[in-house]
Design brief:
single chain, 768 residues, alpha+beta, Aldehyde Oxidoreductase, domain 4, Aldehyde Oxidoreductase, domain 3, 6-stranded mixed sheet, 18 helices, 32 strands
Length: 768
Amino acid sequence: MNEQTKLRTIGANLPRKDAQEKVTGAAIFTDDISLPGMLQAKVLRSPHAHARVLRVDASKAQALPGVVAVATRDDFDGMSPFYGYLIKDQAVLATDRVRYIGDMVAAVAAENDATAYQALDLIEVEYEPLPSLPEIATALADDAPELFDGDKPFGVANPYGTGASGYVYPRKNVCYQFDYETGNADAFARCDHVFEDTFTFSRLQHMHLEPFVSVARWTIDELEIWSASQSPFVVRKELARVFAHPENKIRIHVPYIGGGYGAKNACKTEPLAALLARKARRPVRLRFTAEECFLTNTQHASIHRLKTGVMQDGQLIARKSEIFLNSGAYADASPLVAEKAGYRINGSYRWQHIDTKCYCVLTTTAPAGAFRGFGGTQAAWASESQIDMIAHRLGIDPYDIRMKNLLNLNEPYVPAESGIDSDLREGLSLVADRLGYRNRRRRRGRGMGLSVVVKDGGGANKPAHAFVKATTTGGVIVGSGTTEIGQGSTTALTSIAAEVLNCERDRVSLTPVDTHASPYDQGTFASSGVAIMGKAIEIAANKVKREVLAFAAEDLDCDPGDLVLQDWTIRRGNEVHPLAPMIMKHFGGPGFEFVALGYYKLPADHDAPLETKIPYWENGWGGAEVEVDEETGQIRVLQLIISSDFGRAINEGACRGQDEGGAMMGLGQALFETMVYDGDTLLTPSPLHYRVPLASDLPDRFQSILQEQGRGPGPFGTKGGGESGILTVASAIANAVEDAVGVRITDLPITPEKVLAALDRQKADGEA
């Protein structure tokens, strides 16, 4: 590509490729799929938090007119009915016991929804209630019963390198433990001060607009599924194991996905939909209600105990962390979240000693799994809150203590790890200036807070495979397993191919995800679509480009280096040669397609703590200004400034949308959102009860600053993005509240009641 035409698509801020379909309603989602003879499925759920299932009698339901199939634990012959990420502990339907209110016990496939609901009422289930364990403390108590007693479900720990280790079922009701240690524990003895603080993070709901939904059918010996899944190839593998069925005879289609934020990774509705379809011998749609989504997957509530050693001048020396994640009733993605929460708890700073232990605690509540930020939200909340607290205790400005201790550009995050690829001080200075932090007028009731986060980019161990093909007339087709969940992958990936092939983006289309036709991908998660999958597409597109230039050079009897590919013509000096006639002359009237595969994976590095060095870092900065009403405890966010380094923005609007959407989720985490339990009973069981930010909650001034520091490993210097925007907000607001009124809230969300209680304690301490 010559300099004159370079970067015509990247950074051009063109309209999103999927915009017209979605705005006009033409876009197809899984729930839009309708097959001849399709049945509707509904699920019977447990009313008990913990109980043995003594008897399930579905005979009356099966006899109801309009009911075609009823599935229970008695239908598992020939199956291995348990699934999960590293730990296979969640059954398609409850087997010996249920472990939370909402656990799936039986399911019905009927001609319509009304009949299916009627049939659920006819299923008889006899339970023997058992003690419940609704909280981390009760699950870890000495006298707590085990949720999985006897033989534990099959599970494996991830492989780790220097300083890191993982354990499956290390103690009662703990399904996974991640440890990381480096440096010398004697470092604490050299510190001038050692501070110990505890932080809690509330349980949250993903609130994706599209519910969990699958459509399944069996055709002779092939299982075909349409699914709103972020990881269709992983689901295919799990279904093959659960049903003892060959992977090549399981086909999964993924249309557009209406949001996921991590919840739609791995199996959710697919195994049960497949079981019902097999039994009914007809297609089945299983679509959860919004209320059922609250019972299917959540973000982890957590407890963080931080012990941090510092010098009088603010130099950070040592940190010891204990993190307890509330995993709910089943492991789901908890082991992976624990790994990331434990690895990220030390933030963006330099330490001489780190000692971290993160536990996944099983409780009798809804399962917790992947959520935007993937352990980083919990870690950033605790770490960045304590950094501010330490600064106040030492009489140092929170900005200054961060600038003193931030990792330098290219400095390894920890020993044997890759270096930080953003200038963290430059980013913090930029946000502080935009916030007006250093020139602010101090007055009671109004304050500012800062936060700096670093999140290891996803895809370190992830292989990416893609194809690119160019038709006779210059149409370009890109194939990958990356799913479009609203993040803009369709726009980004087609832009990369267009850039390499030096053509307009309108020439490029992306194939729908189909496990029979799309190249393999582990899943759309961890902001890896551009930097990792984009790299595979770049490689494939460059191969196609070389093939086209070699073909044209042979036809023109010249060297490929003499030629330039531009808009499906060959430029040779001042000569222009349209490619289509050349191709048809050589291959005949039907023409030809130039096709290439691209593969990209970082090499394993057994010295690196996570077995492969992190490919890039999602670095983010945040600043907030708040006003606190000391009579009511109400917090008004006057300013919210966020910034992320995308390396190079492929599409500015999409990048800003990701950052700003993440920041609004962070605002919800900070001030409003929490799944409230009364013991085992969820008191906020639906979107009608669950408080999210409203338009009226938007800060008076909300600004995102897109940084392009240009050091990303992806195509054209890109990095992954979309998660750092959520990570800084809660701690920045908590830091601003303390700056405003001198009270520290360590328990999310930061509600008026908590602020008033803290102010009352402050007043009582002052009068004592």
